[in-house]
Amino acid sequence: MHGLINRSIESFLRGTYGHKYWRDIVNELDLGFESFEPMFRYDEALTRSVVDHAAQRLGKSKDVLLEDFGTSLIVDRRSQRVRRLLRFGGVTFTEFLHSLEDLPGRARLAVAEIDMPDIEVDELEDGEFSIVIRHTTSGFGHVILGALRALADDYGALAYLEFVGRNDDVEQISVHLLDMAYSEGRLFELAIGAE
Amino acid sequence: MTAQSSFTISLSTLDQMMPMCMLLNSKGVITHAGPTLIKVFKSRNIVGSSIFRLIEMRRPKEVTSIEQVCKFHGAKLYMKIRDEHATSLIGAVSCIPECGGVLLNLSFGIAVVDAVRRYGLAGSDFAATDLTVEMLYLVEAKTAAMETSNQMALRFHGEKSEAEAEAMSDELTGLRNRRALDQVMQRLLSTGSDFALMHLDLDYFKAVNDTKGHAAGDHVLQVVAEILTSETRDNDTVSRVGGDEFVLVLPQIMEPDQLKGLANRLIKRLEEPIYFRSGECSISASIGVVTTATSSYVTSEQMIDDADIALYASKEAGRAQFTLYSQDLRDN
Fold first, then answer.
1. What superfamily in CATH does domain B178-331 come from?
2. A-side interface with B, Cβ within 8 Å?
3. pTM for this entry
């Protein structure tokens, strides 16, 4: 898994549960380093064991932890970059949902080797979306679920999102969009640093 | 060529497809402007103004009349907004013969990064097919990726410098080590610089170690390092090359009297008692010196070897001595 993803998980764990919590994980897993290097590549098994261990220590399910991580990517001040880059996807939440299929391509434009699942978005009927996520490592689905919930708020949309399930490499999310303009949402300025 | 069929579209359709378009009449007066342009020129009444007052058309050549504009039908025009930023614009021109006017569609081109900030533009201010937002995304993503890389490079560089400094210094005294000494000497020898090499060996140090213990010995070495550093100049190199052996590289000092003066001063200061845990340690030093004036040295080994001979002569002569190397020391 790409270092940027590992580093983001690390930042989330450090920021939410403290540096000591992170150091304990490092020691217990005997990682041999203090911090992930954002531009290195790491074995996928390593990412999995960090997430598993982190969840176990918190007495949380891995799914919930990953969903929290996804939410933090949008909400947390420390990862404003991610939120901004995602908001470039569309002017409205619907437009954004439709742009999700481009997400892996967009991510790879920024960092060529980054791991991203294949995403398929279908609008089944008005306001009803099905999002299919395909990746050999499970977990992307819950990260995306958490991020989408936060992004709906960010756009000021009222939506009901649910994890439908997982089958082999495929995870599925359903989105039920209730109100596109439920609240003001958060401002998004195209110009960097303008917000 | 067959006559092109024409159809009517509303201005609102035009605005939706080209939010940065404007219509000019035959006199160059703006009769209609797209919503994004209205935002850009916000405080100025764009409709009703002459295009030439608001925008400077600069390339391929200066254009000041609508007749000239029409010559660029189908071509690309480079312009600048006449405001404090002089924001660049690219324009596509299409002449409408029926009314003698011009349809102008504008874009910020590469200036878009600054333009969106200046004029507070949003994604909805650009046509759906316009790649502006994608370009801004890319700029931001690349900046972020580059920043992360740079931070990493900077951190690695810091760690590398630290490791290098560590590899070049003696842990106990903080003086340069043998490796650093070799590098300095190689550099000076290869550039043909004049310098003196002073080889200093502590006298009675073994006794301190044997009777007062290693902690006392270490303390003595640290005090010696301080003395050597304080008695030499910043551009001199003071290194510890063995247990109680030190080598000083002194650029530009060649005069035997000057070297003798320094050596005697060092010996005198080193002979002052050193206190450690209420005990007193007494040492002295024997010194051998060689300068680049003695012989045309090529390698540092040759020079250190000669300094060794001089040092040995000092020891032989009863320690706490200074000897300047000369060929007859070897002959005897």
1. Reverse transcriptase/Diguanylate cyclase domain (3.30.70.270)
2. 4, 37-39, 81, 84-85, 88, 90-91, 106, 109-111, 188-194
3. 0.67
